[in-house]
Structures
1.
Amino acid sequence: MREILSDLVAEQQFLDQSLQRIPIKNWDRVTPSKPWTVRDTISHLADFADLAADTLLGGDKVKEWQKASDLDVLRQRAIQRGRTMRPQDVIEWWRGGRAKVVEPLSHMTEHDRVEWIEGSMSARTFATFRLMETWAHGLDIYRALEIEVEDTTRIRHICWLGWKTLPYAFKAAGLDYSPVRVEVIGPGYAKWVYGPEDTDDLIKGSASDWARVVVRRIKPKDVRLKVTGETAQKAVEVAQAFL
């Protein structure tokens, strides 16, 4: 757990520090995830941090999300709250929530189970979801603020999660899933491989492309992934490293 939690904190701190350097007026810039603004996006991250913390500490707030027929209604509640707050207060809201997530996770093994919106998952996967949320929404914020950022080796966690969640993505799309292998090259020519060797369905290419595809920040037709096999082709189309 130490590795994923260290990378989670680093990703959150990088976004936090980026926000400290922008004019307050830029907090209301619209991101590519319209109509959300920078403020709205951090409010969402803060709200989900609170929800995650409550779950880890034995609360039952997640049950409301599990029973909800429209999750966007619940997301909008946090957005409205953030719009009544000063930018620095929104950041403090987020900081408080994420600290209450990391502390209990640090006392868990990677195989311990955590209850979440679509059911339980391992503590490692849960922590990776928190990193993915920060990274994906960070991409939106950096684009809105015209901030140039380079990918780090932390992107391997998003690549892994994109592969790990393929069975769920196929089920959500009403498709049958069979094992797919993903081989990607990341910063510093690091190579990361997920999936069995004995499959004809293979996705190869850059970690940056695969990670952005699985968080739906770029369309498959706009990347240079080499895809072999029908299931692998479907995987690129339906992949979603989020619930």
2.
Amino acid sequence: MTKPRLRDLGIRLGQIPAGPLNAITDVAGISVGVTTIIRDQPHAARSGVTAIWPSADIFTDFVPAGFHSFNGNGEMTGTIWLAEQGLLASPICITNTHAVGVVRDAIVRLAAKRSIEMAWHLPVTAETWDGWLSDAENFPVTADDAIAALESAAGGRVPEGNVGGGTGMVCHEFKGGTGTASRRLPKDQGGWTVGALVQANYGMRNLLRCGHAPVGLEITDEVVAVPERTRRKNPQGPKTDQGSIIVILATDAPLIPIQCQRLARRATTGLAWVGGFGSNSSGDIFLAFSTGNKVPMKTPMANLGMLGMDECTPLFQAAAEATEEAIWNAMIAAETMTGWQGRIVNAIPHDLLKQAVARYARRED
């Protein structure tokens, strides 16, 4: 069953048109896979893995990439080598905080299984913490889970909400998770596509915005409050100043590594439009890559294209808009979840969201 998205509620954000799928997979060649873990025995698990393949041959034909740490209370493996060579040489995985090593090693296992000639691998795996809803210290994610996500990856529609690495996430005190969106520039600006995929697990409700509407102030405390039995067990509720967001941006525009790094920074703007500001305890880490250039592993010389610097400006806007809508798509698709120790996180009520946005809609004369 297809889950609802922001546009299904009649709400549109931004000015640049979306791609046909409004997903990161609108960038040709990208595929996404998920493994979702929801069980109560032997321990409560609300977790998983999300895998992103920039291309089917990423282990042998590398692509330019760059990353940005808006606030660094988090982890994204492989970034030291990425900063050094500017090339992404593996699929990307996102999971929970305590599974980063397991999932990172699974990518290496998969490369070995496929007999990739490269003698060593430093793959990218990122995380956000799902320990409010999942008994994270019982380590539910395995290498087999990661490989299943990697090997099931496909193009087309991307699963959203309580899936993959986003299964146990909380966003602005509502249920968060995995979300995606895209923007496609008009032909006179190059016709390039920018896609975003987020794992959203951050934020305070009072700062949540949708367009012009201060949604988090419009939706009252009673709506987000957890039942009395949960408050008795966990009187503080979710730690609203803790959490993180991972943003993966992809484009088919021909960029070199420093331009990818600049593109990655623009996820900050989309995050801010929704209400994120990078609290001390938040791991807000963004990575961007370009499929418009490829560098074969064994080539002695690679010829790369480079988009003009002024021509990057529309891409920057597209990255900000796609990030903003991807966060909202994660929240709209997410469903109320009960997890570890009976803790409950409510999904954002679609009807109240629509009412709040309507109250602040621009009125035409």
3.
Amino acid sequence: MRVLVCGGAGYIGSNMAAMLAAAGFEPVVFDNLSKGHKSAVGDNKFIKGDLADYELLLQTLRKYKIEVVMHFAAFIEVGESVQEPLKYYHNNVSNTQNLLSAMESAGVEKFVFSSTAAVYGIPTKVPITEDAPKQPINPYGETKWAVERMCHYQSRTGELRYATLRYFNACGAGKTSKLGEDHRPESHLIPRVIQAAMGKYGEIKIYGTDYPTPDGTCIRDYIHIDDLCRAHLLALDKLDSKNELVYNLGNGNGYSVRQVIEAVKRVSGKNFKVTEAERREGDAPVLTSDASKAKKELGWEPELPELEKIIETAWKWHNDFPDGYPD
């Protein structure tokens, strides 16, 4: 089965393409390299292209006889989405509509969409289930929710079978620590703390220490990238019998900012400066997932739920690639 992996040179997309190839699929990576890295693609077929290019999308879908599309080509920075909302609506919504239109023209029905826990906004209760209210508080979350609704209505036409997978915090390095996070600039907590341990930052700031949590810092749900990607394969298989799937993907257990920092110190054996700062607007005290639906319906179970094990894989990758991918 040939799978078009949009955004397949990025962090999650490259890990997904590698897992697809290892499972016997034929991934075709489609990426404009605005955020991704060509060296993360490996030996997989690569097409440099933008989702705004309808003709190239249609040509690619037909030429390679694509049967499934997986979409990881969104912009993901919450802060940037607030500063530049139109940029996010254009790429995350308009370009996805373009992709779905090309799929419809090419007769490609199966679609796996990378969504986010940001669609829930600040939840009224945790852990969060799939039927919790959708109340995004930033353009990033709004654009992901808009695509989910677009897929829902398109599926009603009989032209689309889709799975929406709402990630919590993807982390770690996959395929035996060969494919890691290399965002530029880096905003995710685990890689930033690792880079502080490597001496790349003078300090790590904790934004808010007075939250109603055991140690006063925010708690988040971290899921290893390999566990995340395995759920995509299971969801893809489930699309043979279902038109519409929606799942949360997380460990269900949360770790605080202080716990992440201390875990990195233990794994790395390094110490570094940690300072405290004011809360950031919009940060919920606790965001953890109820992923029981994915476990029940897909038979999915995280294999690397322990925080230190996750960090070990990321620590190895960052030390193997101290300057990131050599693009």
